[in-house]
Amino acid sequence: GMQVNAQKMIGPVPGIEIGDEFQYKSELNLIGLHFDIRGGIDYITRGDLKLATSIISSEGNGYTDRFNSDVMIYSGQGGNLTSKDQRVVKDQKLETGNLALANSMVEKTPVRVIRGVKRLDQRGKCYVYDGLYLVQEYWRERGRGGSVVFKFKLCRVPGQHSTNLKYY
Amino acid sequence: GMQVNAQKMIGPVPGIEIGDEFQYKSELNLIGLHFDIRGGIDYITRGDLKLATSIISSEGNGYTDRFNSDVMIYSGQGGNLTSKDQRVVKDQKLETGNLALANSMVEKTPVRVIRGVKRLDQRGKCYVYDGLYLVQEYWRERGRGGSVVFKFKLCRVPGQHSTNLKYY
DNA sequence: TAGACGTAGA
DNA sequence: TCTACGTCTA
């Protein structure tokens, strides 16, 4: 089998280069890029401090992330944005993954960014590793129905070669 | 990436040997053993005829498969056995995967069997390829609440070396 | 035990 | 659009 049993950590993953492409989030788990097989924000806990290790931007399901050259605006998680039952959209809270991203800003620890993009055959998505980003700021917005949504501004760490995204 | 883009077909998959182990059903998809990433029965359609290519026996969720040396009793799919909302358990029907298994009996075409087994670390399952089987017979039973459940008796094709299942 | 940016196929 | 023997973390 392909089992790797990688260790969850902050920063680059040995052997993984910018632009590397994967078919499934479970592959990201095996390879050690992102362990949460459904969630968009993965993190570790150091003592009492949650710190983000990686995020996946995968358009749809109510999430509206934005990319602009080396800056991305990433939507926080929670609030039933992705629930099948979207009748009740709740406020997002600064906890779990959202809290980890806020802490990463304060601690200035880098976050791996993976972009879910449409495959060329238009059937489903694939995931492309886009390199390290730093959280620069975050704020609260009002989404549909007035519920609270967190937004995180991340800036790509300079000096990394660019990701050739041939899918857009 | 690990993309393989294998072709769905009946019989052995080149390069895959009995006892090979995988961590995720999505790996089975990549490798060409079983393409349906959730469903237990995978099949092809030849003209108007559905024929099973592979099945996964993965205990739990209301399914009660049985293994006894080279014979297995496999439960058909459907009837909401695996639905989160099990308040309404319906009769299984001889359609899609169940129909394909029935046709495989008539046509005497082999079916790849994959067994979902507990991992040694007890966290989740892994999947072990167990070789080719032939459907020998099938029948209807009454499950919980009197709903119809199909049962398929499959016999392992002789001459294949045995699967070393170190997980039971 | 429930929630989470899941995926392919009918 | 919905179903399907999903799979991890909190």
Automatic annotation (TrEMBL), chains A, B:
Subcellular localization(s) per the UniProt record: Chromosome, Centromere; Nucleus
Residue ranges of domain YDG in the record: 11-156
Name of this protein: YDG domain-containing protein
Native source species: Eruca vesicaria subsp. sativa (Garden rocket)
Part of the intact protein present: 211 to 378 of 378
